[in-house]
Design a protein that fits this description.
Blueprint lengths: L1 E2 L2 H5 L5 E6 L9 H15 L7 E5 L2 H13 L3 E7 L4 H9 L3 E5 L4 H11 L3 E3 L11 H10 L6 E5 H7 L7 E7 L10 H4 L5 E5 L1 H15 L5 H14 L7 E6 L13 H6 L5
Parallel strand pairs: 2-10, 3-4, 3-6, 4-5, 7-8, 7-10, 8-9
Antiparallel strand pairs: 1-2
Helix pairs in contact: 2-3, 9-10
Length: 273
């Protein structure tokens, strides 16, 4: 857990903002927690055997988390990814021994199930089915650091919705990126009915904030982290000094080397460097 120093002062915020650097997990993403819960659940059910092939329609860092654990536990992995997946993610997946298949968001599930029918001893993973099990350790870590309580928690919507019932007397804020780079079309149907405060962000605000976190705070986070902190700063306006606000930083810079870390890439899109 890290307390932000410069950014809240620059924005005239009274309350302290703490960030949970969950991108420091082994594969560089908070999704390691989700991937581990998925594997533990399906192995416990008996529906997965050593050497089998897992087929996962997913996006970005979740695919890397699944590939890492697949390698450790001797499974084969086929990731069905959006066509817009960054070069960094594709390269990392191949290095981990995973196969990649690209599809549109609308066809990802159909492609995954077609592969399942074609490949013997295979199973399709649903990343939304076991999310609840992945939050227990995160809740414990945050509450331990914050002396047992907090007033506001800000994270991507699917995480905030899962954490909401687990932290008493805490306002949960769900962040949904809408930009062409950060938006995850595969999660829209799963988060639309969630009851909590929701904020939408765009790529410009997210990437500019991520650059500020790197330059001003020395935190090597990614675009989703920037989106969460931007949203937290909007929510923090007017909050009293004693408010305990925690923001989840789910991703690192490693998947963004060819995008917002590049000055020319930012300037081409009219973003502030």
């Amino acid at each position: 857990m890290v307390k932000l120093n410069r950014i809240p002062k620059e924005m005239g915020l009274e309350c302290d903002i703490y960030v949970k650097c969950d991108y420091l997990n082994p594969s560089g993403s908070t999704n390691d927690r989700l991937a581990l819960a998925m594997f533990n659940s399906i192995e416990k059910s008996g529906n997965l055997k050593p050497g089998w092939t897992l087929i996962a329609p997913t996006c970005g860092s979740t695919a890397i988390s699944l590939a890492m654990i697949s390698t450790i536990r001797s499974y084969k992995l086929i990731s069905v990814l959006p066509e817009s997946t960054s070069p960094e993610i594709n390269i990392t997946l191949h290095a981990l021994g995973a196969q990649t298949v690209h599809a549109t968001p609308e066809s990802a599930q159909k492609v995954a199930h077609r592969l399942h029918q074609e490949i013997k001893d295979s199973v399709v993973l649903d990343e939304h089915r076991n999310q609840e099990d992945s939050y227990e350790s995160l809740v414990k870590e945050i509450l331990k650091t914050m002396d047992g309580s907090l007033d506001m928690f800000v994270a991507q919507t699917e995480v905030a919705s899962g954490m909401n019932p687990k932290i008493k007397d805490c306002t949960s804020v769900g962040v949904t990126p809408t930009g062409p780079v950060l938006a995850d079309p595969l999660t829209k149907a799963h988060v639309a009915s969630v009851t909590l405060i929701q904020i939408q962000t765009n790529d410009k605000d997210a990437f500019e904030m991520a650059r500020k976190l790197i330059k001003d705070e020395g935190i090597l986070c990614g675009g989703l982290s920037g989106a969460n902190v931007w949203a937290a700063c909007q929510m923090a306006k007017g909050l009293p000094r004693e408010t305990k606000l925690v923001v989840l930083l789910p991703d690192s810079v490693t998947n963004y080397m060819s995008s917002f870390l590049d000055d020319d890439w930012m300037k081409k899109r009219g973003y502030v460097v």
